[in-house]
Amino acid sequence: MILNIPSNRTEISGIGSALVDLLLQESDTFLTASGAQKGGMTLTDAATIDGLSAKSRAKPVTVAGGSACNTIMGIGRLGGKATFVGKRGDDDLGRFFENDLRSNSVTPVLFSCASPTGRVLSIITPDAQRSMYTFLGASSETKPEEITPDLFANAALVHLEGYLLFNEALMAASLKAVKASGALISLDLASFTVVEAAKKILPDIIREYVDVVIANEDESRAYTGHADEQKALEQLSREASVAVVKVGKRGSMISHNGTVTRIGILGDGSAKDTTGAGDLWASGFLYGLVHGYSIEQAGKIGAACGYEVCQVIGARIPDAGWERIRKTYR
Q1: Domain limits of the chain?
Q2: How far is it, in rounded angstroms, from Cα 212 to Cα 102?
Q3: Structural element, H or E, at residue 194
Q4: What is d(CA 60, CA 30) in angstroms, rounded to the nearest whole number?
Q5: Where is 89: in which H helix or E strand?
Q6: CB–CB of 49/22 below 8 Å?
């Protein structure tokens, strides 16, 4: 095994924001007028999301989402044991979210509250980039004391989304609970804006708790200060057992035990939408690691998942796509 996974455990759990995604295909002009930073994530309120949606002639596509949720649903579709921990509102969107988890073979562990379920407006421009406005809603009310080690008693690995860094107390409680459970920890850095905001606390978190760290080129640059992706990977690999830097159409680089494995992409790199590309890449890679595949094999499963999700709008791979992915590891 690449990682020292607790014996008799194969479940992968995720902790993150229970959000409903509103996927809106729009022009660069619309994006600029909205004030969003292309490729970034802006925290906002429900009124702003509603206002921007109303300004568009396009009708948004609605799906359950959130970074860790996307990853865990991908693991469920791959055939892995998958659990998602988060908080939803006691409303129609919250029930929609929970039912969507179950329909994707994920066991929901969802706390609830009176606040509305969080949602994300993802503006997808013609270059397939997505820029996000996020209203956290109920997901921001998860209490640190609700995250306890017993939630992860069967988990081999627990995947945390970088967006949790906006709530330092919740992130700290999650890390301590997972560590106490004996499960390994993976962390996706989520967005360069997240990394910049959490720059003071992130290095200590990675060094002390994280076994697998996953970043794209923008996030690795924001974290390490290195524009050279190889140097960024080298720094990350000194801080976590497995370090990943995804480099878009050039694939990904994975470092473990001093060895760097390069994984290419499928196809010509064309994409309809990059929403969920990194999340689904993580699905395949983490599934592979937990189930005993080599770094190269796990990376190829990740690449297959990342490719398939880029061929559709949103983070949902259709059944035919999952069948093609399974052929890469069965």
Answers
A1: 11-18+67-116+139-326
A2: 27
A3: helix 192-197
A4: 14
A5: strand 82-89
A6: yes
- Say if CB 13 and CB 101 are below 8 A apart: no
Nearest partner of 41 among 139, 163, 205, 126, judged by Cα: 163
* Cα–Cα distance measured from residue 276 to residue 23, given in angstroms and rounded to the nearest whole number: 11
Return d(Cα 169, Cα 166) in angstroms, integer. Answer: 9
* Residue pointed to by tokens 């470092």: 255
Return the H-helix or E-strand segment holding 135: strand 130-137
Q: Tokens standing for 294? A: 């080599």
How far is the C-alpha of 56 from the C-alpha of 37, rounded, in Å?
Answer: 18
pLDDT digits (tens, 9 = 90+) for 298-307: 999 999 999 9
SS3 278: helix
In this structure, the dihedral spanned by the alpha carbons of residues 91, 93, 96 and 97, taken in order and rounded to 10 degrees, is -110
* Rg of the chain, C-alpha, whole Å: 18
HSE-CB of 148 using CA atoms within 13 angstroms: 5
Residue 1: pLDDT band by 50, 70, 90 thresholds? low
CA neighbor of 64 nearest in space, from 140, 5, 144, 118: 118
Average pLDDT over residues 124-135: 90
| Kind of pairing between the strands at 19-25 and 82-89 | unpaired
The secondary structure element, H or E, covering residue 184 is strand 184-188
Is residue 126 within 8 Å of 28, Cβ to Cβ? Answer: yes
Element (H, E) at 103: helix 92-103
How far, in whole angstroms, is CA 208 from its chain's centroid?
21
Architecture of domain 11-18+67-116+139-326: 3-Layer(aba) Sandwich (3.40)
Task: Record the pTM.
Answer: 0.91
- Tell me which DSSP letter residue 190 carries: -
CA angle 12, 307, 216 (to 5 degrees): 70
SS (H, E, C) 23-72: EEECCHHHHHHHCCCCCCEEECCHHHHHHHHHHCCCCCEEEEECHHHHHH
Neighbours of 230 (CB within 10 A): 11
